[in-house]
């Protein structure tokens, strides 16, 4: 029997697995094969986005595993995201339906606003926008996303890359509360204040880049290659990456490690058979530097740029 990840209850009562497969920079066949492998190994949370340009491949992998009887649709938690070029309220529903068509699904379990900053729409193939930023208020975008729940196109809605003040603004004006905020989070950038704020408001933090995009040639990030992490890995009979992912899980964060390597996909998932002791858990705090891997610096001058605030 396949071992599955535990789940966490969202503020709308729905359940989400506490670890998932990230697919950013998994292109075409990589995204397809990664999704298939992940579902075979027990992953039940698959994260994609319109701007990743791999929704169709992710959807094909899911469809085939459903057809093979490996999973049923209601066992897979699928997340995708509204791109910046579709922030205009008139474009939100059409963008969501386009993602559903790409995925081959009637609904997604979670639909996120990828950034609080909108980009000018030229056409749907201009996926990444042109960094012609717009002044569309993310509150107006959010109100359209709420309608997607009412239409049955999405089960839950949430945020990505929002700071605490922006999250508060959504919470103060929403009819449907965001269930998650997906942000960069790893031992080198631990988001303590944002995590505390989210917990106080019933918002789950999901972590992209939970291993900070490792670069073995540079021995980057330090927390993966440091002697202390390797000693912990030896102590617990696992790998440094598993130590770091387990740390996030024990923080209450939902990590979304990305890999196109079958063995690595499996390795990243095997973090539920051990628990870091309180002392070892606290020892990981030493790696926090406050340095982002993904600063979205091209948006830094915009009034809704989220990372000018401390958290």
Instruction: Extract low-pLDDT stretches.
Output: none
Spatial extent as radius of gyration = 19 Å
Distance between the termini: 42 Å
Query: How many individual β-strands?
Result: 10
- How large is the share of residues in beta strands? 5-15%
Give the overall average pLDDT: 96
Q: What order do the strands of the largest sheet run in, or round the barrel if closed?
A: 3-4-5-6-7-8-9-10
The secondary-structure class comes to alpha/beta
Number of helices: 11
The arrangement of helices and strands along the chain is EEEHEHEHEHEHEHEHHHEHH
Helix content: 25-40%
Inertia-based shape: globular
Biggest sheet statistics? 8 strands, parallel
Could you characterize the architecture of this molecule?
Helices cover 36% and strands 14% of the residues. With 311 residues, the chain is of the alpha/beta class. An eight-stranded parallel β-sheet has the order 3-4-5-6-7-8-9-10. Strands 1-2 form a two-stranded antiparallel sheet. Helix 5 (164-173) links the parallel strand 7 and strand 8. The mean pLDDT is 96.
